[in-house]
Write a structure and sequence with these properties.
Shape: globular
Strand order of the largest sheet: 3-2-4-1-5-6
Strand content: 5-15%
Oligomer: single chain
Number of helices: 9
Helix content: 40-55%
């Protein structure tokens, strides 16, 4: 059977002017994943990134730890179908006052619990986006996002070679949408998965000509293997 490894990017730069880059910890998470793969002689025959900077940085840091005989030689592929939803737009459509980053940062700081407060804000914004009642407000609706993620996966499955081992560096929302497709989950469960996904966590799918199935979800054994305080993050 073929294997598809969906890897969530390492920790991004939450709270900075440019979210779409890895933090120092995010780079380390990706490197530890690469060390873990090398230790287990896990190689890949095909490498795909979702087109975002944090995806590419995660791939570089992770695969750079693999010996040459385990890592894909030649060009990596980019498929924007595996890109994340626009989290900034989703938040601003629900709370227009936060289009001003200073207003948002001040609100989060004043709360005394910025990460927890942001999570609550974002959950509410995601509920609005996914309700289908405000689709015209967004450049990409929830259903359109989900369909493009599934279409990207289908492009991988249509490539000849059932024994290929594909690694896709992507984001939590994309992985959650693909899990919904594979397991037939309702929307509410998709977002439960999304909030639980660990940075640099691995989800594995198995496939052949007749079947696509889940092998495991959100494996972060590599971070426990090289356990350091604070190494397991969710944003």
């Amino acid at each position: 059977m073929g294997q598809i490894y969906l890897i969530r990017h390492g920790q991004a730069s939450f709270g900075s002017a440019d979210y779409d880059r890895l933090s120092e910890l995010g780079v380390q998470q990706a490197r530890v994943l690469g060390e873990w793969c090398a230790e287990r002689r896990q190689g890949f025959t095909r490498v795909i990134t979702g087109g975002m900077n944090r995806h590419r940085q995660t791939a570089v840091a992770c695969l750079g730890e693999l010996p040459r005989h385990l890592r894909k030689e030649g060009d990596w592929e980019t498929d924007a179908g595996f890109a994340e939803y626009d989290h900034e737009e989703i938040l601003i459509r629900a709370r227009p006052e936060f289009a001003d980053a200073e207003v948002l940062n001040r609100f989060l700081t004043d709360s005394g619990q910025p990460r927890q407060t942001f999570q609550l804000l974002f959950e509410a914004a995601m509920a609005r986006w996914s309700s289908g009642e405000h689709d015209a407000d967004y450049s990409e609706s929830w259903n359109t996002f989900r369909q493009r993620c599934v279409a990207a996966l289908q492009r991988v499955l249509m490539t000849p070679g059932e024994s290929q081992t594909v690694v896709i560096f992507t984001s939590g929302g994309t992985i959650s949408a693909l899990c919904q497709h594979v397991m037939g989950l309702p929307d509410a469960k998709v977002f439960e998965i999304n909030w639980s996904l660990v940075n640099s966590g691995v989800t594995r799918l198995l496939f052949n000509a007749d079947r696509l199935s889940m092998s495991y979800l959100n494996n972060f054994s590599h971070l426990e293997w090289r356990a350091q305080p604070g190494s397991i993050t969710y944003r």
